[in-house]
Design a protein that fits this description.
This protein is mostly helical. It is built from 6 helices and no strands.
Length: 187
């Protein structure tokens, strides 16, 4: 015969609280390979930005300032996106489609970094710092294009019709209502 202690022990024993994970990679929004690429994007953008900032004088400052803007933007926003996607913080932000945001940001940043690197390479003072900044700009461009390619290969283009993916993988009530009334059937 079981004692009261053994019967109630399994249901009333104090359970250890769940440990909160602050780092969730891989997740539904970011796998390990793309996480590593995003870290590389941040590092390359940082080096390009620092090298450009150290340039003391410029004859034509427009290309330098454009490169500065793009490299700084890439550094800060890629770091922010990386932190949001690799931690539970993305669940607290009111964004429903992280894949679309990630895809759009990565593609725009790849194009902007490519343009800024070309413009700065075409018109700079040919100092070692400027040439190094351009080199790291092109390396960052390659990293963004690799990230873009891996995203398309693994998840497709999220903006295309019929390729809507939600981060939380739950069906939308609107789509359930539309599908329930039979209007989407083909005759």
């Amino acid at each position: 015969m079981a004692t009261a202690d053994t019967v109630y022990n399994t249901t009333t024993a104090a359970q250890e609280p769940k440990s909160r994970k602050w780092f969730i990679v891989p997740s539904e929004n970011l796998d390990k390979v793309r996480f590593a690429i995003k870290v590389i994007e941040v590092l390359l953008s940082f080096v390009a930005f620092v090298m450009e900032e150290v340039v003391s004088s410029c004859s034509q400052c427009g290309p330098l300032y454009f490169f500065e803007f793009v490299s700084c933007t890439a550094l800060l926003f890629t770091l922010l996106l990386l932190i949001l996607l690799a931690t539970p913080l993305h669940q607290r932000v009111g964004i429903n489609s992280w894949p679309t945001l990630d895809f759009g940001y990565t593609s725009v940043m790849a194009i902007l970094f490519f343009l800024a690197s070309i413009v700065f390479a075409a018109d700079n003072g040919q100092t070692g710092l400027e040439q190094g900044a351009v080199a790291f700009g092109f390396l960052a461009t390659v990293a963004f294009f690799i990230d873009f390619g891996l995203f398309v290969k693994n998840r497709g283009i999220p903006c295309r019709k019929g390729n809507h993916q939600q981060a939380d993988r739950t069906p939308r009530p609107e789509s359930e209502k539309l599908n329930a009334n039979g209007t989407d059937s083909v005759n």
